[in-house]
Amino acid sequence: MARFGHYDAVVVGAGFAGLAAAHELLRAGLTVRVLEARSRVGGRVFTRYLPDGTQLDLGGQWIGPTQLNMVELVRRYGIETYPTPGHGAMIVDYGGQRLGDSPQEVLDVFAEIDSMAKQIPVEQPWSAPQAAEWDSRTFASWLADSGCSDVAAKFVDRVISGGLLAGSASETSVLETMFYIASAGGVEPLLGYGGGAQDTRIVGGAQQIANCMASDLPAGTVHLSDPVLRIEHDGSGARLVTRLGEHWASRVVIAVPPMLAGRIQYDPPLPALHEGVFQRMPAGTAMKVHAVYPEPFWRADGLSGVARSTTGVLTETVDNTPPGAPRAVLTAFAYGDEAIMLRRCAPEERRRLVLGQLGDLFGSRALHPDELVEFDWLAEEWTRGCFSGHFIPGGWTAFGAALRKPVGALHWACTETAVRWNGYFDGAVESGRRAAEEIRLALQG
Amino acid sequence: MARFGHYDAVVVGAGFAGLAAAHELLRAGLTVRVLEARSRVGGRVFTRYLPDGTQLDLGGQWIGPTQLNMVELVRRYGIETYPTPGHGAMIVDYGGQRLGDSPQEVLDVFAEIDSMAKQIPVEQPWSAPQAAEWDSRTFASWLADSGCSDVAAKFVDRVISGGLLAGSASETSVLETMFYIASAGGVEPLLGYGGGAQDTRIVGGAQQIANCMASDLPAGTVHLSDPVLRIEHDGSGARLVTRLGEHWASRVVIAVPPMLAGRIQYDPPLPALHEGVFQRMPAGTAMKVHAVYPEPFWRADGLSGVARSTTGVLTETVDNTPPGAPRAVLTAFAYGDEAIMLRRCAPEERRRLVLGQLGDLFGSRALHPDELVEFDWLAEEWTRGCFSGHFIPGGWTAFGAALRKPVGALHWACTETAVRWNGYFDGAVESGRRAAEEIRLALQG
Predict the structure, then answer these.
(1) Does residue A233 share a domain with residue A168?
(2) Which among B221, B307, B347, B373 would be 20 to 30 A from B116, CA to CA?
(3) In angstroms, what CA-CA distances link B331 with A261, A356, B309?
(4) Domains of chain B: total
(5) Do the domain assignments include residue B182?
(6) Which of B126, B141, B376 to mutate to test the interface with A (most CBs of A within 10 A)?
(7) Closest approach of chain A CAs to the CA of B24, in angstroms?
(8) pLDDT in tens, A382-432
(9) CA pseudo-torsion sign A425, A426, A430, A431
(10) What pLDDT score was predicted for residue B269?
(11) In which band, very low, low, confident or very high, does the pLDDT at B428 lie, cut at 50, 70 and 90?
(12) Where is FAD annotated to bind (chains A, B) (predicted)?
C-alpha cells in the first residue's frame, strides 16, 4: 500500500465544499491534501460538451445575486457569466388550464410559507417555536390541511418540494421545508430567474468554477480517482485508507453528503447521534433531461422556454441554450413520484413521456429533438441523488444538533450542513470555509 | 489476498436471515459460505452473561406462538423455553395517573388501527386502497388529527411507534405503521405477553437459537470477523472482497438491513431504485437497559414488573429475570425522543433519569440496583440501530417495489424484507428462506 505522508488536514471530496475548505486551510498556512473518488472535481456540478461544442450542465448550473460566495469566486477567477434568457412568456399548466404565471391562490400559499420560514433560526432549526409540531408533520399533510385547492396543493408540492427540494412533499417535514426556504431568504429568491437563484449562468459551464478552484491549488494537492474507504481516528489525528494508499492527517474535513459520509468505515465507529444523521438524510431524486434542437424554436412563438406544470411527468422546463452555441437546449426536470416512475420505465417509454409533454407545452417541433440527454445522479456511485439531501420528518429535532458537530479530528462540510443557501454551491462553499475555520482554530488557537 | 474458492451461494451476514438462507440453500444441495462481520452469529440477538451467570438478552429475546418459523426452530433444536413471567399487576402511568391497564380510549384507537391495518396487502403495501394518502402523512399527524386526547395520542405514540417500531410517530408514515401491524396480525399479537409476541423466552438466552443454527451447518461454512467490503457482480455471478480475502459465488444473499447493505461497495453500482431503498430505511433508536437486583422485590408487591408510561424517559419495563437465575432483572426501554435524549446525556445523568423513573414505578428499592447494564445498538458498527429499519414517509409508494427485487446475482434478505412478522426474528427467517428459494429456482429451475 502506497504511503502518502502526513498533512495538517486531509479533505475528503473535491466538490465545492472540499475545494473551498482546501483553499482556506492553505491560506491559514496549513498543509493539505484533497482526496476525490471521481476522476474529476466539482461533485454535483458536471458540464458535458456535445461533439459540436454545445454545453450541457448535467448538475447544478445557476447562481443568484445573493449567493455571495459564488459571486466572489466568479469574480476572483474572472469567469464569464451571462443572464439566464428571460425574454418571452412563461407557461403554467395549472391542472390542465394554461396560465402565464402562478395564480393568486398559489402566491397566497407562498406568502404563508414565507411568513413561517421567517420563524426558523437557520443555525438551529430545532429551536424554532413550533419545531416539534412542524417536524412531526409532512409538508404534504400541511398542504392537504391548508385549505388551498387540490391543484394549488399539487402545484406547491411539485414546484417547492420538487423544484427546490428535489423530492416530494410526502418525504420532508414542514420544518425541513421551512428551513430550506429560510436558508435562501424566501420563496421568491429560490424560484426567481432575474434576481433569484436562477439569475446567472456560467459561460462554458458551471464546472469551470470548480476547475478553476482546483487549478488554483498547489500542484498535486488533489488526488483524483482515490475513494476513501476507511478512516481510523482519535482526538489527535487520523489515518485514511484509500483505494490507492494511506494518508495521515491531524484533522479531516469530510466534504461529502451525510448519506455518503456514512458509507465510509470509521474506526472507532462514529457516535450514535452522528450515525442518526447519516441514516436520516436521503438525497433528492431529481431527473434533469436535456432536449437538444437545431434552434430555439419556442422563442419565435414568444415563449421563454420556462414552463411549470401540475400535470404530466415534467414539473419544469427552462431554455438552457448557451450563448453562441451551435444548437438550442430545452432542459426539463422531473421530481418525486414522477421521477421515480420515469426511472422504472424502459428508456423508449421514458423518452415518449418526456417528449410528449414537451410537445404539449411547446408544440410539435419539440417532439423531435436531435438528441435527448439524460444523466441519473441517483445511479452515480459517488453522489447517489440530486440536488441535495434533506432531513426526514423528525430528523432535525432528534439529530440536528449533531449535523455539524466535529468528532475528535473529524469535521463536517457539504451543502447539507450550510446555514445560508443550503443545497446550493454557495452553501457548499460556506460549509467548507466553516470547517476550515474550525480546524484553524483547533490547530492554531 | 487470500482466495477462498467458488460457491453456488455466498450469504452476507450470519443473523437469523443469513443462517436460515444458508440452511435452505444447503438443503437444496448447493454449496454455501456465510460471511459475517462480527466475531459471533445472531445479528441483533446477543446474549451476555454476568459473572454470576445471570443472563441478559441485550437484543431481541421473545417469541410468540404465531411466529411459526421460530416455534419450529426451537422445536428442531430442542431448545428449552419458558413463559414470560405473567403474575402480578401491570402499571400504566397515564399522564401521571396510575392505571392497571390501557384505558378504553386507547383501546378504541388500537381498534381503529387494527381495522386500518386489515386494509394493507402485506406483500405490496403500496397497493393498499389509501396507500398514497397514508404514506404522505406521519403517524404523528394521524394521531394529532384522530380526535383522541393528548395523553392517548402520547400513549399510542410511545407504545406503538416506540415500543413496536422503536422510533417515534414523527418518523414513520401511517402506511408503514399499518403495514408493520398487519405483518404481525394486529396490535394485540404485537403488544401481548401471554399469546403475543412476548409470550415465550429462551432458557439460556435467545442467541442460543442462532448458535444452534450455525453449529448445524457444515464446519467452516461461517466465516466470522470477515466483513464484506465490495461486491463485483453481473448476471452470472459475483466476486466478494472481504477484509480477509475474496470469494466467488453464482448467487449472493445480502442478509443485512438495507441501510447496511447500502454501505457495501457494488461494482457496478446498484440501480437507482434499490439505492432509493437503502437511503430511506433508517434503523430504530431503541435503548434497552437492564437493572440487576438481588431479588425480584416487585413481585412481593404484587407487581408483574410490566409498566407502560407516557411520562419520563422510559416507555416500558418488564421483568426479565431468567428462571433459576441468581439475581433478578428489570429491563427498561426508551424510544424516539427520549432515547435520543438519553444518548445525549452524560452516563451519570442517564443513570439518574432511568433509575429515578424505576423508583417512581416500583419504589425506592429500584433506585439501587447491583448493576445497570446498557448496550447501544445505534453505536454498533455492524447494526447501527434496533429493533429494525422502517421506510420513511413516502418510501413505500416510491421505492417499495425494489425492496425484495433481485439485481442480477444479488438477492435480498433480512427482517426488513419480511411479509409476516416484519422486524422480528421470525420475519428474518422467512426472508432468508424466501431468498434461498429464489436462488434455488434460478440455479435449478
Answers:
(1) no
(2) B307
(3) 34, 61, 14
(4) 1
(5) no
(6) B141
(7) 31
(8) 999 999 999 999 999 999 999 999 999 999 999 999 999 999 999 999 999
(9) negative
(10) 96
(11) very high
(12) 36-37, 228, 416
Q: Do A398 and B168 lie within an 8 Å CB cutoff?
A: yes
ipTM of the complex: 0.95
Same domain, A120 and A265: no
In this structure, what C-alpha cell is assigned to residue A284?
A: 433528492
Instruction: Find residues 271-330 of chain B whose CB sits inside 8 Å of chain A.
Output: 271-273, 275-276, 279-280, 282-283, 285
- The enclosing domain of B231 has a CATH number of 3.50.50.60
Shared domain check, A158 and A223: no
> H or E segment at A177?
helix A174-184
Domain limits at A423? 2-44+207-270+407-444
Quote the radius of gyration of chain A (alpha carbons, Å).
22
If DSSP states are collapsed to H, E and C, what string results for chain A? Answer: CEEEEEEEEEEECCCHHHHHHHHHHHHCCCCEEEECCCCCCCCCCCEEECCCCCEEECCCCCECCCCHHHHHHHHHCCCCEEECCCCCEEEEEECCEEECCCCHHHHHHHHHHHHHHCCCCCCCHHHCCCHHHHHCCEHHHHHHCCCCCHHHHHHHHHHHHHCCCCCCCCCCEHHHHHHHHHHHCCHHHHHCCCCCCCCEEECCCCHHHHHHHHHCCCCCCEECCCCEEEEEEECCEEEEEECCEEEEEEEEEECCCHHHHCCCEEECCCCHHHHHHHHCCCECECEEEEEEECCCHHHHCCEEEEEEECCCCCCEEEECCCCCCCCEEEEEEECHHHHHHHHHCCHHHHHHHHHHHHHHHHCHHHHCCCEEEEECHHHCCCCCCECCECCCCCHHHHHHHHCCCCECCEEECCHHHCCCCCCCHHHHHHHHHHHHHHHHHHHHC
Same structural domain, A143 and A215: no
* A184 lies in the same domain as A110: yes
Residue A220, pLDDT score: 95
Interchain contact B346–A (C-beta under 8 A): no
Give a yes or no: residue B39 inside a domain: yes
Q: What is the CATH number of the domain that holds A111?
A: 1.10.405.10
Residue A143 lies in a domain: yes
Domain termination site, one of A124, A159, A191? A191
Which region, left, alpha or beta, applies to residue B237 given φ > 0 means left and ψ of -120 to 50 means alpha?
left
Residue B376 to residue A272, Cβ atoms within 8 A: yes
CB-closest option in B272, B379, B392 to A171: B392
* Contact indicator for A387, A428 with CB cutoff of 8 Å: no
The answer to whether B181 touches B187, Cβ cutoff 8 Å, is yes
Report how far apart, in Å, the C-alpha atoms of A303 and of each of A57, A188, A200, B94, B326 are. Answer: 22, 21, 19, 63, 83
Structural domain ending residue among the three candidates A137, A159, A191: A191
